[in-house]
Write a structure and sequence with these properties.
Elements lengths: L1 H19 L7 H4 L1 H18 L1 H9 L1 E2 L2 E2 H15 L4 H9 L2 H29 L7 E4 L2 E4 H13 L7 H7 L4 H27 L8 H29 L2 H31 L1 H5 L1 H28 L4 H12 L3 H12 L4 H26 L16 H4 L3
Antiparallel strand pairs: 1-2, 3-4
């Protein structure tokens, strides 16, 4: 339940920015946002069931496994975040690299190996009696459990380079640092994804979807980043800072939330039928993915606290470490094992749990922020709890 409460918290905090300077209250839509989230999930599943041809048609609108409808939603989710980023904080990240280095260590030296261990324990041993069956991949008979493990590994070695900007924003994080982390992850994934995946999967060949990686980074990060920077610069020059902060940003307040809700509808319309058709396997696959996400988040969060990082840097570092680039994982699984393989199914389960789990962790961050020293001026979305004390 906490992941949906976080959406309400984000909306409330946006409204609180206004109330701190005089007035403002939650609208009817904002007040019952928890209800809208559940409705979007249900609507998505029902649309996929009642209008399967429409869902298939929309899902087929993709370029190199990058869904065009979801890309449009993610652009409108990312643009309001990008336009609020203080790019001076991004420049300062070079001088204070601890959060970036922490993310690199967790994403490439810890996370892939814990994913192997957790997946092997649950899918290869504990849940194995319920995962009986085999499938044929490239002429070789493979057990379903091993295929699911392969899909989990592909998720574990693909760090998120897009939606994590939303999670950092919602958690009152330093978006300048988050942006640098995303850029570094994008570059390191181009270099490390293939050899690490080949080694962990113990395969003779690993086909890396370079086009998917490059295109997703361009659409999900570069395009909203350039658009946000250009429009921010232009509006500040023409209209001034007061109009930009009080008017323009006010217009954008519901955009990111609406885009996130639309993304939920699309994701569950495209893939929600899997929950209805194969609920046991979906649940069993989701268990190790859920545990892995929470473990990496908790480990990174604690290490960040021990390193003395400010909350505004620690929260996005932990969220970056925990999240996955599911488009790349799905594309790789489809290329290697086939569209209907267990590995591809496991990566799709990653899609279904990514948003609710990450929103839950955002709420955990906000409720534990008092364990860290605070530098609220770094955040693109100010934490109203800090400014009430001033």
């Amino acid at each position: 339940m906490s992941f949906v409460l976080d959406l309400e918290a984000m909306t409330e905090s946006l409204s609180n920015e206004k109330s701190l300077s005089g007035g403002g209250s939650l609208s009817f839509f904002e007040r019952y946002l928890t209800l809208w989230v559940f409705l979007c999930i249900v609507i998505g599943i029902l649309l996929g069931r009642w209008f399967p041809d429409l869902a298939v048609t929309l899902d087929s609108l993709s370029v190199y496994q990058v869904s065009i409808p979801i890309a449009i939603c993610l652009f409108f989710m990312m643009y309001p975040i990008m336009v609020k980023i203080d790019f001076g904080q991004a420049a300062l990240a070079v001088q204070f690299p601890k959060p970036v280095l922490l993310t690199l260590v967790m994403n490439w030296l810890v996370k892939p190996f814990t994913m192997v261990i957790i997946a092997q324990f649950f899918l290869g041993w504990l849940f194995q009696p319920w995962l009986q069956g085999t499938e044929v991949i490239r002429g070789v008979e493979v057990s379903l459990s091993n295929s699911y493990i392969a899909g989990a590994i592909l998720l574990g070695i693909a760090p998120c380079t897009a939606m994590v900007l939303m999670w950092g924003y919602l958690s009152y994080g330093n978006q300048g640092h988050t942006l640098v982390m995303v850029a570094v992850n994008s570059l390191t994934m181009l270099v490390l994804y293939a050899p690490l995946g080949r080694w962990l999967l113990a395969m003779s060949e690993l086909t890396v979807p370079w086009q998917t990686i490059l295109l997703s980074v361009a659409i999900y990060v570069a395009l909203p980043l350039v658009s946000g920077l250009a429009s921010r610069t232009l509006i500040l020059r023409v209209k001034g800072k007061e109009w930009f902060e009080e008017k323009f940003l006010g217009y954008l307040t519901p955009v990111a939330i609406t885009a996130l809700l639309a993304t939920l509808v699309l994701l569950f319309a495209f893939k929600g039928d899997l929950i209805v058709e194969n609920p046991l396997h979906i649940f069993l696959i989701a268990v190790p993915l859920f545990i892995q996400t929470n473990f990496i988040f908790g480990l990174t969060y604690v290490v960040a606290q021990k390193l003395g990082l400010a909350y505004e840097d620690a929260a996005p570092a932990a969220l970056v470490g925990a999240s996955n680039h599911f488009e790349v994982a799905i594309a790789t699984a489809v290329v290697l094992f086939g569209l209907n393989s267990g590995a591809a199914l496991a990566t799709v389960v990653g899609v279904l749990i990514e948003v609710p789990v990450m929103l839950m962790l955002v709420e955990v961050c906000k409720r534990t922020a008092f364990y860290f020293r605070r530098e609220p001026e770094k955040a693109s979305l100010p934490d109203p709890r800090c400014f009430r004390k001033i």
